[in-house]
Amino acid sequence: MSNMAFTRRRLGGTPVLTSALGFGGAPIGGFRFALSDQQGAEALGGAFDGGIRYFDTSPYYGYGRSELLFGYALRPHPRDDYVLSSKVGRYMTPLAPGESVAGWRPGGLPFKATFDYSREGTLRSLEQSLLRLGLARIDIALIHDADVHTHGSQAEADRRFAEAMAGSYPALVELRRAGVIKAIGVGLNETAMSLRFAREADLDCIMLAGRYTLLEQGALDALLPLCEKKNMSILLAAPLNSGILATGARAGATYDYKPAPPEILDKVRRIEEVCRHHGVDLTTAALQFPLAHPRLASIVVGALTAGEVRENIARLAAPVPSDLWRELKHEKLLAEAAPVPD
Known about the structure:
The protein has helices at 37-50, 65-74, 119-133, 148-151, 154-166, 168-177, 191-200, 223-230, 244-247, 262-277, 282-288, 306-315, 322-330, and strands at 8-10, 17-19, 21-24, 54-56, 83-88, 90-94, 111-115, 140-144, 183-188, 205-209, 233-237, 254-255, 258-259, 296-302. The chain is α/β, with parallel strands linked by helices. The chain has one domain (4-330): TIM Barrel (Alpha-Beta Barrel), CATH 3.20.20. The chain is globular, with a radius of gyration of 19 Å.
């Protein structure tokens, strides 16, 4: 049986071809899960050996730790054999001895992040990323976290949006025009801010975290139609909504990195019942569903071990009966307009 994980999909109007299944570098940064550098490198190696050819990271993941591990694992391979994305909007500076920083997260490297969407901050961030990676280029550069979810208020998100449109965006456009990077976009947690960037900027892609999943399809209303009109691709991060579509509706299940509220638990419980009725694993359905949309270039899934990577690859080859999607729509658990896998 063929595996959709390895299907190559074009990113917008660029020459970049991502694998439908991408490897997300947030978990191996070490913020939420304890792991050794060796474990992180083995997870990355398992992804490449398993056939994944799109890898996404960020300076913020582990305050540089994720990028260091990416470089270590990917440098032995020919550079043209994979697609790599990282992000701008923060740069790193070392912690001073004994320094305490509000909100600093353990598990990463002894650096602190400073938001900066200016031209200078963007170029500084990219240069730092290349040095940590030990690679001469990044294929896709994404403006990271310029949204309400990250900055806490609409007013602050508006300020960061203006800063990014005056600084990060024109800097990335110049680098794209010069061929230094192949594609540019944004990496955000919200449909509304993604739509705002998509309307005002000439982007190749949007990395959207958790807003077009088996659980919620709000991006169908305006964002995905605009992406179709402007030939932009979606890179879907957090396709399991930060955990609940992996664990199911159980005590302690997380949604958007917080305990899932009752209405989310109830909806996931109902989706699980439909999946059980058709003999399909919840996570399998969750990973396969988004890829049916023609604007989806990749689902970006994090993993801590090579075994988890193999499980994700296997899920994208597992058969899912079309009756499952029909029943989800009949029960109003899936948007009627949502494309579903054949």
